[in-house]
Amino acid sequence: MALSRLASSSSSGSNLLKPLTSALSFTPSLRRPISSAADDSTTLTIETSIPFTSHRCDVPSRTVETTPKELMTFFRDMALMRRMEIAADSLYKAKLIRGFCHLYDGQEAVAIGMEAAITKKDCIITAYRDHCTFLGRGGTLLQIFSELMGRQGGCSKGKGGSMHFYKKDAGFYGGHGIVGAQVPLGCGLAFGQKYSKDETVTFALYGDGAANQGQLFEALNISALWDLPAILVCENNHYGMGTAEWRAAKSPSYYKRGDYVPGLKVDGMDVFAVKQACKFAKEHALKNGPIILEMDTYRYHGHSMSDPGSTYRTRDEISGVRQERDPIERIRKLIFAHDLATEKELKDIEKEVRKEVDEAIAKAKESPMPEPSELFTNIYVKGYAAESFGADRKEVRTVLP
Amino acid sequence: MGLRRFGRLVKWVGGNGRRPFSTSSSSSSSCDEMMVQQIASGKSLNLYSAINQALHIALETDPRTYVFGEDVSFGGVFRCTTGLADQFGKQRVFNTPLCEQGIVGFGIGLAAMGNRAVAEIQFADYIFPAFDQIVNEAAKFRYRSGNQFNCGGLTIRSPYGAVGHGGHYHSQSPEAFFCHAPGIKVVIPRSPRQAKGLLLSCIRDPNPVVFFEPKWLYRLSVEEVPEHDYMLPLSEAEIIQEGNDITLVGWGAQLSIMEQACKDAEKDGISCELIDLRTLLPWDKETVEASVRKTGRLLISHEAPVTGGFGAEISASIVERCFLRLEAPVARVCGLDTPFPLVFEPFYMPNKNKILDAIKSTVNY
Q1: Which of B225, B252, B274 is the last residue of a domain?
Q2: A17, B123, B180, B322 - which has most CB atoms within 10 Å?
Q3: Tell me, what CATH number does B261's domain have?
Q4: Which residues of B touch A243 (CB under 8 A)?
Q5: Which of A4, A97, A147, A213 is the best substitution to test chain B (most B C-beta atoms within 10 A)?
Q6: Residue B205 belongs to some domain of the structure
Q7: d(Cα B88, Cα B60) in Å, to the nearest integer?
């Protein structure tokens, strides 16, 4: 097919691969045997995979400090996200998840790195690829699988489904189904934060596909005009549904597309680069207003469950990214390089995670479906519920047979 | 899906498949003149293949036809545009960025230059960013320029309606919003044969058209579809089953549900007349009126929420025209006044039993 030829010969296609080995550049003096029970206070200095590229702003340092504990946590959290998405894939295929479902595997470093740099008082708003962002905000596996299967125990009481996860107590504003529509909302959140002077920021996430929507530029202008503490995060996974970025965007340098808004290009497959960039962006946004972070990342699955993900890109490209840039493998290598754990210990963590996911699914299956009357709630505030007229045109039913 | 097919098949005999469209102001009458009735048989096709065939013919018969939208050059998410880019080239069949407002605005401009622009909005739920372009630009272009300009060559295709598990943003039926915008036509087919003929009419119609395709039927609905180039008239409802006791009006995927209800009602001795409205704007009041004058009762059914749905417009018009002939209040069996639900879809939908209940209570009023 002409398409796959084009995809593999395109310049952006080859740019997707960057050597993972650069992740292993660390300060040699720190290379000493550390047992897996390493002292938490030990500081490791790590360099991000590649330098940041900036547009109208300073470049953050490539050197990041971390601890053995943080490295191990990153590994576990990302492995959990990966396993969760694979399980969601199976549940969808078993028809236990209905509706539309978009998986995040491959992009985990963005969710994890972002959370590591900010607090739960900062807000996050994203599109429909929201499972892992929700987990990162402190949501539980049980809430996730219950929501996916439309059960009462879900984070949106089973009324939202895959695309509509929310967690108010952790500043997670969802979970939005229309491409690009969440970004102007993010500006509104940021205005609220600025007005109340609580020194927090909003991260509004969108994809490279959404970057071509008009309302994104409206949001950019508004947030720059009023110096809002808004961080627009473009998760560039290089395909807007089935269309490669170079087919849809005249300038695929999404970090520059804010023109008058500063931007930073980040390796979104390197959790430390993401963390460093988000920390930098938060400081910047509080002082100077909006900034764009372009996270160069990759989704292993297709756009949604009905997209096999292999018609518009080559299998070689996918396996190449898995081998060269996988965010979990990068951390695994770092752990080995610092002698923080053995191969077996990491395998054990992955087994644990698998068990945790399986248990959550089993529990979620026990959660009952919502009451039929829930169909009519939450449309308006209480007292203004929707009415449903029966066939006799007289009876108002709120519970249908 | 067992849609009964009492419909006339109409073949257009215009020869080269072109009609002047930028100057003509009324389409349905000229449409009829150029069409003759002909019974023909063809291959068994499902709905998306019939759409594909129509687009194929449209591109082949008029070099000024263009097909574009999100992912269409790969065949589109529902495979409606499969193979078109290969055959007609990427200059005429192409992908757009994800920007619905831009897609429709672009289509209006392309059509204003005398082309036939067939734009696809991937789901009807995503049409709202383009709402401004459709309602303020496309619908009023001819009127406000005193007929100097128009975008009559524009056809916006979009899959609408429930699909069993689509959830909030892949299931909505937004047709009523567009029926409030004089200047555009709104067309919804019920089956593959209808889809092919109506889509070709829409593409060649000298007015901008919003063409909603019932996505539930893309694969489910299969029938014989003539292979040749034919068109079905717009703004002409079709009586697909004659009856005496009650008139049922619907469109799109809902007709197959209504037909099942008709069959069940027949067991109780109720004879239903089933009408496919086909074009919602401008709609065929005469056919519906004549039917209601005969039966004295009317039931309308659609998937969109009942309040402000197009059923309300039909109901009001028929009450105006046939008040003294009506023997019962007009019944509407529609979607509930809730957002389109995920797990509650079976409750929300105007299913066969709800329609059957309403038929009985209307007949026994």
Answers
A1: B225
A2: B123
A3: 3.40.50.920
A4: 70-71, 95, 97-98
A5: A213
A6: yes
A7: 8
Smallest Cα distance from B9 to chain A, Å: 35
Question: Is residue A54 within 8 Å of residue A27, measured between CB atoms?
Answer: no
Q: Are B207 and B273 in a shared domain?
A: no
Which of A6, A96, A178, A235 to probe by mutation at the B interface, max B CB count within 10 Å? A178
Assign A380 a pLDDT band (cuts: 50, 70, 90). Answer: confident
Q: How do residues B313-363 score in pLDDT, each as one tens digit?
A: 999 999 999 999 999 999 999 999 889 999 999 999 999 999 999 999 999
Total number of domains constituting chain B: 2
Which residue, B47, B52, B62, is CA-closest to B83? B52
Task: With H, G, I as helix, E, B as strand and everything else as coil, classify residue A245.
Answer: helix
Task: Check if the beta carbon of residue B359 is closer than 8 Å to that of residue B332.
Answer: no
Whether pLDDT at B17 is above 70: no
How many residues make up chain B in this entry? 365
Q: What is the pTM of this model?
A: 0.87
Q: Which fold has domain A2-370?
A: Rossmann fold (3.40.50)
Q: Are residues B29 and B84 in the same domain?
A: yes
pLDDT at residue B293, rounded to an integer: 98
Asked if residue B256 and residue B214 are part of one domain, the reply reads no
**Cα–Cα distance between B300 and B246 in angstroms, integer?**
11
Q: Please tell me the distance from the alpha carbon of residue A274 to that of residue A279, in angstroms, as a whole number.
A: 9
- Mean pLDDT confidence for A161-177: 96
> Which residue in the set B99, B129, B347 is minimally distant from A375, CB to CB?
B347
CATH number of the domain where residue B90 is located? 3.40.50.970
Residues B353 and B259 in one domain: yes
Whether B18 maps to a domain, the answer reads: yes
Interface of B with A (CB under 8 A): 70-71, 74, 77, 86, 95-99, 101-102, 122, 125-126, 128-129, 164-170, 306, 329, 331, 333, 336-339, 341-344, 347-348, 354, 357-358, 360-361
* The amino acid at A287: K
- For β-strands A243-244 and A239-240, DSSP reports them as antiparallel
Q: Is A379 in Cβ contact with B338 (below 8 Å)?
A: yes
B59 and B188 inside one domain: yes
Question: How many Cα atoms within 13 Å fall on the side-chain side of residue A55?
Answer: 19
- ipTM score over 0.90, yes or no: no
Residue that finishes a domain, picked among B225, B254, B284: B225
Clarify whether residues B92 and B195 are in a common domain. yes
> Vertex B336, ends B330 and B339: CA angle to 5°?
145
B215 CB contacts (<8 Å, ≥6 apart)? B78, B123, B159, B160, B161, B163, B166
- Two structure tokens written together for A127: 């599109």
Q: Which residues of B touch A158 (CB under 8 A)?
A: 342-343
Domain-embedded: residue B210: yes
In angstroms, the separation between the Cα of residue A396 and the nearest Cα of chain B is 12
Q: Return the SS3 of B160.
A: strand
- Tell me the nearest-neighbour CA distance from A186 into chain B, angstroms: 18
CA-CA distance, B203 to A108, in Å (whole number)? 45
Helix (H, G, I), strand (E, B) or coil at A79: helix
Comparing alpha-carbon positions, the chain A residue that sits nearest to B103 is A213
* pLDDT at residue A381 in the model: 74
Give the domain ranges of chain A: 2-370, 373-401
Question: Which of A3, A240, A370 lies at the smallest CB-CB distance from B343?
Answer: A370
